[in-house]
């Protein structure tokens, strides 16, 4: 264990929360952008989540913990831009173009593949299992995108936008241990969410978006879910797991979340689960399993390095979708 003692029931309860919550955020985003402008609504999501988390931290530990050095301020702003503003904002834009929420989750699930590619380029040679996972991930991506494109199911622009999101998210995950950040992960995340919310809100306003107050209960309900459950509760459970469970177990969320997302998209919105989605998505999930397994068996350095290499959030994140 990385931190204090915890019962198996507590660990699996927290892990179940991460599985379900971060698997459901893709559907939540889709339900929001069906009625609301994507950039402004996602900006509002992160500003509200940052305010809630900031208030909680201030009550628990005072305001002095929010002091940042210049390097830390630049670090949280940079990560907020990569992980949440571009990563999450582009995900919302891609879904607005017509990419189903389940397929979006599968496209985002390729993040560990990009991280492994960055490591290879940087001279950090991956294990044989990880290398096989990289190849399989790219094959699964090709099946998922090209076969669906052949049937006219997936909009090309939306797919490209979401792939840009996954590339940005994975680069942020890879660069995170190489920049200055606050020691308190909750403080860091609150600043990242505030940065992302501000950038997305300004981008939405400058592009002419307008968040009308007469949105239906679906959009407001989904937005509230993303703020409270997706961002605050989901990340709290994730951060707790990092201190109380083996990182190899925590990392399993990277291949469980897309399965949950595909199921929820089919159940709630009747999103089609085509053969390319099943085959390509299955190959993508298998590739992530191989990469995570390769890291677990090949990385015997420090616990901190292992965490960075195996912890590839979703979305959000260490915030999720």
Automatic annotation (TrEMBL):
The chain crosses the membrane at residues 12-33, 39-59, 71-93, 99-117, 129-146, 152-172, 184-207, 219-240, 247-267, 273-292. One of its GO terms (cellular component) is membrane. It is found in: Membrane. Keywords: Membrane, Transmembrane, Transmembrane helix. Pfam families: EamA. Residues 17-145, 157-292 form the EamA domain. It is a multi-pass membrane protein. Belongs to the EamA transporter family. This is Membrane protein.
